[in-house]
Each structure stands twice: as C-alpha cells, then as structure tokens.
Amino acid sequence: MSDAFRKLLAERETAPATITPHIGIVTLHFQLYGVEDLKAKRKAFTPMRAIWGKEPDLAVAETGDHETLDSAVWSIVAIGGTSQQLTARLDQVEKAIEQRIDAPVLEVHRELL
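Structure tokens predicted for DUF503 domain-containing protein:
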C-alpha cells in the first residue's frame, strides 16, 4: 500500500461521518364534492395533520387551492436514509391517505431530492 493511500485512509477514519438524508415530496390534488364552505373543507382534511402531521419523519401542509371549495392540494415531505426507504415510506403514506380521506385524488406528483 502506498503512503498516499494510507494517508487517505487515516484521514477518512478520523474525519466525522457525514450523513446525507434523502428528501421526498409527494403532492396530492384532491377533488371535493358537496363542500359548502371553507370550514367544511378544512374539516374534511383534519386527519392529514392529526395523523400524518405527528409522524417524526413527515411534514404535512396544504399547499394550494386554499380558497377553492371544489379542490385541495396537500404536500407531504418525508426524510429518509436511502431513496428506496423514502419511496417505500411515501407509497405507504399515499395509500393510507387515499383510504382515510373522503376525496378522490386527481393527480399525484412526486419529487426526490
């Protein structure tokens, strides 16, 4: 082994490990029917924050169509160790949301950073 290679290995062992988390964003566009006011719209999406907003690896927010009564846009941001873990977690959350929220999902947009 060359001296230069030994030096690189020694530096690597003494340097602090860097962890680069992966971030994923899934944006769901919902269609709403029979909503008469914004209060009823917010009530339909109460589980979004109540359930998934308390998860330590997720952040949940209404990100569009705030004043529109017939549609809603919500985004879920997840953090994970690997892109495979992140994709699996986002799949799990998306499926659970579709089962718990009483509004059809028109469009899903995903982005991994």
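DSSP finds four helices and four strands in the chain.
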